[in-house]
Amino acid sequence: MVNLESFTQSLTEQSNTAIALTIAGSDSGGGAGIQADLKAFSALGVYGTSVITAVTAQNTQAVTAVHDIPVDIVTKQIQAVLDDINVSAIKIGMLSSSEIILAVSEQLRQSTIPIVLDPVMVAKSGDALLQQSAIESLKTKLLPIAFLLTPNLPEAATLLQCDVAENEASMQAQGEALIQLGAKAVLMKGGHAKGDECVDLLIVREGPITRFQSARINTKNTHGTGCTLSSAITAHLAKGIPLMESVQLSHNYLRQAIASADQLHIGKGYGPVHHFHSLWQSNDDKFLN
Fold it and tell me: Angle CA(182)–CA(184)–CA(190) in degrees, nearest 5?
């Protein structure tokens, strides 16, 4: 497992600026993907760099087209960032094809930078974002180099080729099975489960299971929740914060972003969470200063 403490200590000697890299697809609607990642990084005081793997024609209602970036351009983006900039943590999101997965894994397999892998498969609208043929590549090439894997319940079931977990016991069992596939740690996200409480489970290779619980918020504006949580964790890791604390801080941040989502009025479908809920003034008080 990546020794986060020694890694961030060496980075501190080089730079006082916490820097994160997101490798993901672009959401033209601005609620998920690269856009959500960079918003979360910025909201949490981390400088964001990016590698775009795909361009989607997307809004709050649907994904109408996906265009993969050529593999050599993805590779050159990664090289350009890492050759010059002292990145402290990396988030990997949408990689839609086996070719892109292989290219990314080849560039990062020798890296000591903590990697948060969010196995993006389906958009909030239900549209597929990962080719079926690419799932095996994700399991064999990216899981073994991930510091943290952050699947929702349907994604975990797809990776394991089993039924979706229906309770905490099966969530735990699936998280432990994903550890066996090579992930150093797994955050099983319970947003798709039923009930008034949303429970996430953090499972590490050696150590206790940590439970994160919060009341479920009644809103349809949850576009980008998975991207936002994984990028928030990445941002906190980039600051040198230990994993469990990074997850707790990110869980709290996302909860507030969802609770504030209805303050925004974006699109006609599933609107985005409010990444800048603590920074933007409301219409009621913007003239008070």
Answer: 100
> In 99-182, which ranges are E strands?
115-117, 148-149
The answer to whether residue 276 is domain-embedded is no
CATH value at residue 24: 3.40.1190.20
pTM given for the model = 0.90
Beta-sheet strand order (sheet of 47-58): 63-68, 47-58, 19-27, 89-92, 115-117, 148-149, 185-188, 197-204, 210-215
Q: Give domain status of residue 273, yes or no.
A: no
Residues marked active site are found at 189, 222, 224-227
Residue 137 located in a structural domain? yes
Nearest-angstrom CA–CA distance, 161 and 158: 5
Walk along the chain (289 residues) and give the pLDDT tens digit of each residue. Answer: 455 555 555 544 445 899 999 999 999 999 999 999 999 999 999 999 999 999 999 999 998 999 999 999 999 999 999 999 999 999 999 998 899 999 999 999 999 999 999 998 765 555 556 677 788 888 899 999 999 999 999 899 989 989 999 899 999 999 999 999 998 999 999 876 666 788 999 999 888 999 998 888 889 999 999 999 999 999 999 999 999 999 999 999 999 999 999 999 999 999 999 999 998 866 545 433 4
252/134 Cα distance (integer angstroms) = 32
How many domains does the chain divide into?
Answer: 1
